[in-house]
Amino acid sequence: MHTERLYYQDCYLREFTATVLSVGGDGAVELDRSAFYPESGGQAHDLGTIEGVAVERVTEHEDCVLHFLAAPPGNRIPAKAVSPGATVQGAIDWERRFDLMQHHTGQHLLSAIAEDLYGWKTESVHMSAESATVELGAEKMGEASIERLEREVNRRIQENLPVRIATHASAKGLHLRKATERPGPLRVVSIADLDHSACGGAHVRTTGEIGSLTIGRAEKIRKNIRLEFACGMRAVHLARRKSGWLREAAAVFQSSPDHIAELAAAQRDELAALSKRLRALETQESKRAGADARRALGEAGIALCCAARRVPDAIADAERAFAQGFCERAGAEPNRTILLTVALATGAFLLCASPEAGFDAKAWLQEAGARLGAKGGGTAAMISGRMANPEGLAALVAALPFPLVELPPAAAL
Ligand SMILES: [Zn+2]
Question: Which of 92, 117, 144 is the last residue of a domain?
């Protein structure tokens, strides 16, 4: 079977009459002629209606265009009016189609100018109702070159150049931008003498109808760069949305949109400085808490203080500072302290000993610790390590060679 593609001759045809050739078991309606553009060549399929029933998807299979209609639940075959032999009326969702035509012609122009200006060849294209992209063979793309590309495309749009579609017997002598392996006849879309491309897509009549083209995000993909672009009303809607985001951000900063970047950078720097200051204060506070805990034990008459402290999930800077404060000598009194901090959830531990404790933390790890499966490293005064199984931490605490004092567990921050 074969569907005559009406959009080949007239991209502006919005309504048409056709005969149903078949309705497949999957609900695919095949017509003898159709203005519906199927998903192909990077361009999204049309939407619309056939006999008033919504067309949800359009695909092509060999020479046929297949229309998938919204069907009543539980029934994949659509309306009775759409049965083999019936004459049906088709209508294209024109707003969607025209938007896709603007983007497709915009893409040809963008691809042509990107290649002419910079030698960036188009590797792939994608045009849906939501987004349009071209993947260009460029390793790097500076903001200035993108801006120039955008300006040049819009200059050509304003020149309102004719876009012509012609069918040729073969590619011979056509100066196509990209060689094609398709046998003739060949449908060639030309933008004045700027670009000649073999393409089966739907296009506007003049570049002026593209309206405008704005380039959005440039994203590195594989060895290429993918540019997002928008044309016509979509570019206008997008500009409106973006200015809305800017207005909202400006309201947060209580400033005008043109100062947001500056203000955001200043606040980011201020936040980083405050965070740093806060961390320093927390460390200081933890160290003081460690010293206070040790002093309290000293006042209780404990000469050699061997303590364990449980913390929730990791040995953070605050725990290290606490251990440091606990084991550090303060004033003239000798400080004989050992502290084993254990993180119950992860199996991590930190063992600290003051020089006067007469305890070699490293040697202990290599003997008693290793027997219990502890792994780690450090110095005689401080080692950090991990038990393969967090449950082994209790045995590690019990293995300390002095009577043990349990410190209250650290409060989770
Ligand atoms: Zn095309």
Answer: 92
What is the residue type of 322? F
Tell whether 15 and 29 lie within a shared domain: yes
Residue 54 structural domain: 4-92
CA of 105 to the centre of ligand 1 (A): 7
Residues 59 and 105 in one domain: no
Identify whether residues 225 and 149 lie together within a single domain: yes
Distance CA 29, CA 61 (A): 12
Distance CA 368, CA 389 (A): 16
Max distance between CA atoms of the chain, in angstroms, equals 107
DSSP-assigned beta bridge partners for residue 271: none
Q: Which pLDDT score, from 0 to 100, does residue 183 have?
A: 76
Per-residue confidence (pLDDT) for residue 412, from 0 to 100:
44
Tens-digit pLDDT profile for residues 72-112: 555 555 556 788 999 999 999 999 999 999 999 999 999 99
Number of domains in the chain: 3
CA 107 – ligand 1 centroid, Å: 7
What is the CA(22)–ligand 1 centre distance, in A? 30
Tell me: the pLDDT tens digits for 105-153?
A: 999 999 999 999 999 999 999 999 999 999 999 989 999 999 999 999 9
Q: Which of 67, 92, 117 is the last residue of a domain?
A: 92
Rounded distance from Cα 104 to ligand 1 centre (Å)? 6
Query: In CATH, what number is assigned to the domain containing residue 79?
Result: 2.40.30.130
In which residue are the tokens 């960036």 written?
120
